[in-house]
Amino acid sequence: MKIAIDAGHGRDGDPGAVNLELLLSEAQAVSVLRELIKEKLVPDFQVFFPDRELLSSQRAREAQENECQVLLSLHLNAGPQGARGCEIWYRTGSEGGKELALSLQGFLSELPLKMRGIKSDDQWFPPSDPGWKGGMGILREFPGPAVVIELLFISDPEEARLLLNPKFLENASLAIVKGLRKFFSLNLPFWDVSSGEVKDALVRLAKMGLIKGYPDGTFHPEKPLTRGEAAILFMRLVNYIQEEGRR
Ligand SMILES: [Zn+2]
Q1: In angstroms, what is the C-alpha Rg of the chain?
Q2: Residue 75 CA, ligand 1 centroid: distance in Å
Q3: Whether 116 and 177 share a structural domain
Q4: pLDDT value at position 12?
Q5: Calpha distance 220→229 (Å, rounded)
Q6: Are strands 24-25 and 18-19 parallel, antiparallel or unpaired?
Q7: 77, 153, 182, 229: most buried, per Cβ within 10 A?
Q8: CB count in 10 Å sphere of residue 234
Q9: Residue 38: predicted pLDDT
Q10: Would residue 16 count as lying in a domain?
Q11: Coil, strand or helix: which one is 115?
């Protein structure tokens, strides 16, 4: 399972949104955040960082070429005075993107941030072109589940200060990782097993109720079976056969 984490901006030294008072840039802050996220995903997941020197639509295609199943693009917002909070964007019509956004929102809402909700990208208009109807390039050019997280408003003095707090960054990265793990466990059972004979067997046995895997959606096919677990498996199998017999 491979996840692309795009840190937005950075191309030609583009700092993204900037808070001049705190001398903080969006490009800088999201770089720190994505390293923290990567640390928590490896080795269960492979993590790919798209090249910051590419345009956003090219970064999406690069992630696809590198066989990433999911893409996250990390950003910070800027807006008029009083604008604050966290919002998550997904590609209009993408069921997977919407589910990923909802799963992330569930954990990000535990942070001390106002939740502005999840948003479909046909509602997005770049400041340079208010008539734009093309959605977000980074979402439109990636076929799988993809989201843009605008974690907070770097233009808001109070929210920007959170970026200087290591505890907040730790909790924010943890929330994103939990959201990803939950998304994988709900949508891709046994995501730590690649497709093949074992995977087919697991999916079938799970449908029959004979095996469950771990709550985080993993199976750990390399782990040995204990005598206790073997007993439970036999019991489930006996029950299954008896119930089938009654039908
Ligand atoms: Zn941005």
Answers
A1: 21
A2: 4
A3: yes
A4: 86
A5: 14
A6: antiparallel
A7: 153
A8: 10
A9: 98
A10: yes
A11: strand
Sign of CA dihedral 101, 178, 32, 155: positive
Indicate the length of the chain as a whole number: 247
Q: Based on the structure, what is the number of domains in the chain?
A: 2
Report pLDDT for 57. Answer: 92
- In this structure, are 27 and 70 located in the same domain? yes
Check residue 44 and give its pLDDT. Answer: 85
Of 141, 124, 135, 147, the C-alpha closest to 59 is 141
Ligand 1 centre distance from Cα of residue 26 (Å): 7
> Ligand 1 centroid vs 149 CA: distance in angstroms?
9
Examine residue 137 and state whether it is found in any structural domain, yes or no. Answer: yes
- Give the end of a domain, one of 151, 166, 187: 187
The whole-angstrom separation of Cα 165 and Cα 18 is 17
Q: Where are the beta strands (DSSP E) in the chain?
A: 2-6, 18-19, 24-25, 46-48, 70-77, 86-90, 115-120, 146-153
Q: Specify whether the CB–CB gap between 216 and 183 falls below 8 A.
A: no
- Ligand 1 centroid to 52 CA: how many Å? 12
The boundaries of the domain holding residue 59 are 2-187
Tokens linked to 127: 């400041």
pLDDT of residue 94: 92
Q: Between 26-41 and 166-187, two packed helices, what is the crossing angle to 10 degrees?
A: 50
pTM above 0.85, yes or no: no
pLDDT for 159 equals 96
How many Å lie between the centroid of ligand 1 and the Cα of residue 137?
12
Q: How far apart are CA 135 and CA 44, in angstroms?
A: 32
Residues of the chain with confidence (pLDDT) below 70: 215-216
CA of 121 to the centre of ligand 1 (A): 14
Burial 89-113 (b: 16+ CB within 10 A, else e): bbbbebebbbbbbbbbbebbeebeb
pLDDT of amino acid 208: 84
Q: What is the pLDDT of residue 131?
A: 86
